[in-house]
């Protein structure tokens, strides 16, 4: 019988670091990644030579980005693997590092996500099967169609959906690592550049450059390296899935529903026990759909909870206190890793002005093109 | 005048199905498991994995019901070849549930000023998309009435 993460050795996140997510610049990717790694090592209080393996999440850098960067920390000869899984590349890298630690193959692993915007041809355009208008339908239109469907079904106005962006920009304004660090009014968001359907520019995530790193370790490593146990947050669930035939409704929401349910079952908790979560809100509509898919409320009701402040920092469950993809940004490889780092800070009580007080249980969720889905649960021991 | 050329003849035909003769048909397929899909392919069935001859061409009627729409305001894509007009913003994309089963997404025409409610009956139509003398036609969907 297959095991889950919780059946194996306990896995802990003990350090997090970032290079700010920002618009494309001249900065080489190496100089995005190294500060994030050095930050995570310092946060964990360990040395690079303590790291036994590296998982590098990246979608856009191209082949073999890792060693050319990591050698500047001192070439230790330890194993390195690159993981591409579209928007969920960083989340996938984190999952596989956790599996290695849980299995006892290593005691200390680094997860690093680095990306810079670049032209990478999406493989699904090379399958040899074309479609009616694949040159006219990009992701923002996919989500504009889902917004229209949701709005019609539940009688929700476009200005209500845009409230997600108001909240997430407000959170991002408190995050020094965020791509967008400016509070925005509903009028600014609705009055911005129209993109597709009712989506405006500030309701769509910025895809820039940046880096995020976390250190995952075993209990043995915590003891051996003298890591402060109060600095350790346990990973109690890791679930992953891909789109399946016959699912009802939009694939993004249906795989979210299934994968979050599996993660909550692994962690043996219910959706209302989550204090803080980082969701894949690449577009405003997604936050509403995913909150509903995970069972926090019934379909069509998320907007009411949002208006009541239930998803604010300090509310019933802080949703994307980092600013989410909409404000923190979505540089692809770093995104899923940065979510884990944000949860680690929140659960340790180290999130500063965006701290959700008393946070004990955190959930990170990413969807990647394909579609694939990743969900992790982190808990303060 | 030369006869019209279809932009994507592997995806649709000018002739309709027996059920809906007046609107272009779509080249879909059906698996022996019963799954109906679009576009036609023989790589393998998305439901059961059967491949090759288990997947047979099935012409789908160009008729369906509207699920959702989005009018696109930003578009950077280039046309597939120089003889074809680029998509000029704003243009409207629709999701349509075909009466034969599959859901397709493509450009809509004839929707200006019309209320595009979910469930609106939609039909396939061919529109000229060429830039020069040659007549090139591409498939769109439009409200049935």
Q: Identify the most extensive interface between protein chains.
A: A-B, 26 and 34 residues
Computed Rg of chain A? 19 Å
Structural class of chain A: alpha/beta
Biggest sheet overview of chain A: 10 strands, mixed
CATH class division of chain A: Alpha Beta
CATH superfamily of chain A: Thiolase/Chalcone synthase
- How many DSSP H or I helices of chain B? 0
- Pick out the low-confidence regions of chain B: none
Q: Give the neighbour order of strands across the main sheet of chain B.
A: 1-10-9-6-7-8
Structural class of chain B: mainly beta
Indicate the CATH architecture of chain A.
Answer: 3-Layer(aba) Sandwich
Output mean pLDDT of chain A: 96
The neighbouring-strand order within the major sheet of chain A is: 3-2-4-7-1-8-12-11-9-10
The helix content of chain A is 25-40%
User: From the alpha-carbon coordinates, what is the Rg of chain B to the nearest angstrom?
Assistant: 16 Å
Give the ordered list of helices and strands of chain A: EHEHEHEHHHHEEEHEHEHHEHHEE
Pfam family, one (chain A): Thiolase_C_1
InterPro entries (chain A): Thiolase, Thiolase-like, Thiolase_C_2, Thiolase_N
Protein name (chain A): Thiolase family protein
Organism (chain A): Vineibacter terrae
